[in-house]
Design goal:
about 270 residues, alpha+beta, 12-stranded mixed β-sheet
Length: about 270
């Protein structure tokens, strides 16, 4: 699955590489005896984690491909719906620094640019919607947790640490033809269908998803791995700063050029 935020952000679907959280206990092992660990009920924990994480007013997501490539730093704000995306992109005339910086708020995207003299941003009308403009900045928490909770193979792996915090590691193999027929509380039909459709467009038949859930039921990290049309594809996400992200606001009006002004600036010799 590949998702884009404007022309700037490319995200590659993926997951379960060989590395895990910091200080992992090893697949099937861990610091606690599974028979005495009530966190081994994977579906119950993942359903709670999807609900609690999705209910947060704001958080930060760092998304990378395999071995840290294609890094994107994203801020998500629930009300009013707003996002910030800073992503490494290929250097070009429109992005000479190789960094794309975009704010989405109130149905408008503001893109950092020096393409118009005296302005540092230009704006694009996103055409309505919920005003967030870049929902992918929320990460894939709902899809990944839901798919794991809906998959029979999902199991507790170990108690590990992520960013110094204790977390329970869960893993499952999600087969998209099976997920497409799922009906239950883990995934709504619309989200299930969108997730399956996007994955199949990339030639994915199945993926392995790993998810690390903190003891407070907040998702700290996820990873997805699959093989599609372009070969092995991986996406890692780390979540932090729940409820403490600074309020997202639009750039000062005087610093923002219109889309037409930006196009005119690019047309200058």
């Amino acid at each position: 699955m590949v998702a884009a935020v404007g022309a700037a952000l490319t995200m590659v679907l993926a997951g379960c590489g060989s590395d895990g959280g910091d200080g992992r206990g090893g697949a099937g092992g861990g610091t606690a005896d599974a028979s005495r660990n009530d966190r081994t009920d994977a579906r119950e924990v993942l359903l709670a984690a999807a609900k609690k994480t999705g209910g947060q007013s704001s958080y930060r997501t760092i998304q990378t491909g395999e071995r840290g490539s294609d890094r994107s730093e994203m801020l998500y704000q629930k009300k009013p719906a707003a996002t910030v995306v800073k992503a490494r992109v290929e250097k070009s005339a429109s992005s000479p620094t190789g960094i794309s910086h975009m704010i989405s708020l109130g149905g408008t995207a503001y893109v950092k640019s020096d393409g118009v003299p005296g302005k540092s941003w230009y704006s694009i009308d996103l055409g309505g919607g919920d005003g967030g403009g870049a929902p992918r900045a929320a990460g894939y928490v709902q899809e990944f947790a839901g798919a794991l909770a809906a998959t029979k193979s999902t199991a507790w792996v170990a108690e590990e640490k992520v960013g110094g915090r204790a977390a329970d590691h869960y893993r499952g193999k999600v087969v998209f033809d099976e997920l497409a027929t799922y009906s239950g509380p883990a995934l709504s039909k619309d989200l299930r269908d969108l997730y399956v459709e996007m994955a199949k467009k990339q030639g994915m038949r199945s993926v392995v998803i790993d998810m690390w859930v903190g003891k407070d039921d907040l998702v700290l990290k996820s990873r997805e791995t699959g093989t599609g049309k372009k070969g092995r594809e991986v996406i890692n996400e780390e979540y932090s700063d729940f409820g403490t992200v600074p309020r997202i606001t639009a750039p000062p009006a005087g610093s923002v050029a219109t889309w037409d002004e930006f196009l005119a600036g690019r047309a200058q010799p």
